[in-house]
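We give the entry.
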Amino acid sequence: MKQELEFKIEGIEWGKLQDEAFNKLNKDAKIDGFRAGKAPRSMFEKKYGKQEIVMEAADMAIKKEYERILTEGKILPVIEPKIDLVSCDEEKLEVKFVFVTEPKVELGKYTNLGVKKDKVKVTKEEVKNRIDSLLNEYAELVEKDGKVADGDIAVINFAGYKDGVAFDGGTAENYSLTIGSKTFIPGFEEAIIGMAKDEEKDINLTFPEDYMAEELKGQKVVFKVKVNEIKTRVVPKLDKDFFEDLAMEGVTNKEELEHEITHELEHQKEHELEHEYEEKCLEKAASNMKIEMTEELVEDEIEHMYREFMQRMQMQGISEEMYYEYTKSKKEDITSQMKVDAEKRIKYRYLLKEIIKVEKIKVTDKAAKDRVKEMASMYQVDEETIMKEVSLENIKFDLMYQKALDLVTTNKEEK
């Protein structure tokens, strides 16, 4: 919901506020011939202009009024308000706040929703694929005779030339290239197939039109390549040596490994299906609910999701600029795709919040402290470490939301 509030300051009060603003700004002003804070107002205004004082006074007034509104508690904004300067000059200040408060929520049916939870099923094919993946992790690279084949690793020297001149980034020695990885531009890896150790070859290629480096887009080049070594991956057999290397407790043969892998997959699928079930229940309960969502609330949620996304990219060593360069996209391309999920997150959040209110869900300090003990045990740290990261109130908040979610996922009608 939106709430608008306007306030105006003029006359003596506005004059006093401008005087305060001048004194504040003058403390750091650098004006020739005067020490900081000692320049007369006329000199300050001559150098910086009267509007500088007016805008500082406006900032001070807006901050003070906003703090008063929050302290009064009659308006409880859920996001930062939009602030419009209706009028701002030496004579008066008029400001309009546009507050976004919690949306009005009308719950529908939110328990016994008739949502069915899928049963866990692990196939023999899935077990085999997981074991094959495990064997590949233990595969060894060994040197091979003969010629390079798809899947081999060719250790090569290469140098790229455009119009007879070596270009930046096109040269390397003893580079390990997995054939079929599509690491290089199209045609390069395919041309290596069939080469023998110590063989040299010129490979004529054309860079793609959408290549990152502007100077190489669509350009014809020649790569001079020499194969120094050919390696192939040797996948181990399910024998005694492999199980000794694996060192998995209670696993000494194929049957025991299949049993262990089946158990792991069941546990993984159970977790995934539980998450899917919760999502379906929330979706059904949210569809039964009426909520008034403002555009500002959705935009704020999108911005929050965008920051989370970019933080994950940065954790992988990818900056915002790098991401846009690699993907050839803009911020609008990402945020437009986030709108549906943003609306969903808002609906789910206020669904659970309203359930907490309606059901009068409470969490005691003892329950919160017990949860802290569980977390400390789970992460193998002491309780003080947990409490440095989160407050007891946040723990209670999370537990209340979990209780509300438990109500949504309750399905007594399910047979």
